[in-house]
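Allow me, if you will, to draw on your knowledge of protein folds for a short while. I have a record of one protein: its chain in single-letter code and its fold written as discrete structure tokens. I remain grateful for any guidance, and I place the record below:
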Amino acid sequence: MHEAFQQSLVDVQSEVRAAFEWTVASDRSSAEAMVACVQNHAAMLPVWRNAARNQTLEHLRSELLAAKEVVVLGAAVTESEVESMDMDERLIIAADGSVGALSDRSKLACVVSDFDGGVHLDGAAGQGTVMVVHAHGDNPVRWLECLNTWSQYPTPPRLILTHQTPEVLANAHNFGGFTDGDRAVCFALAMGVAKENIRLVGFALNMVGAWSATTVAERKLEKLVWMNRILSSVGLEDAVAK
């Protein structure tokens, strides 16, 4: 439906796989299984059906394009930074656990996540938030647990499914990018939001953000180098704390 802003944002995923010695087969298997899981739940959950997910995507696209500015929150964002922002005519895309920095989610358009956000992610999901959720080779256990849990919520989240394979996969999208933060930017760009209308808050290259999930710090910092490269490729590197 919507291609990546530029093909290089998808192509870089192959470079990432090579650097971390991951396989495209595991990425594909995880993505296909996630789609199947959602479709199984959709039998009893109409909001997760293919047509409903497409409607969610189009509605979100319209909202983002109508906003004066789209603010993307990274894992290093602080609650005080969020509280001090003027959100008039602005919308927020939260990268995974950074949604926990929001005490007021009235301006939250969606969360972009590979299911690492823990209780903060579950809290947003329980409010029916749009979740742009991502499958990759080493997160099937997480996405299965989250989707099974969310499907039982009185107000389940609306879903958009994403993957990181070079192939076209039915009922899932590859908007480009690698980490939740830069993938959120790629998503906004793919929706048609101009680079000049995207503001990054809480992006850092030299630290593991407070809203990052439990992770190995050394490996996370390696991933942030790729994040910075991707943001540099779209001209947003100046917003990343070095």
About this structure: The helical segments are 8-20, 24-42, 50-66, 79-84, 118-125, 140-150, 180-190, 217-233.
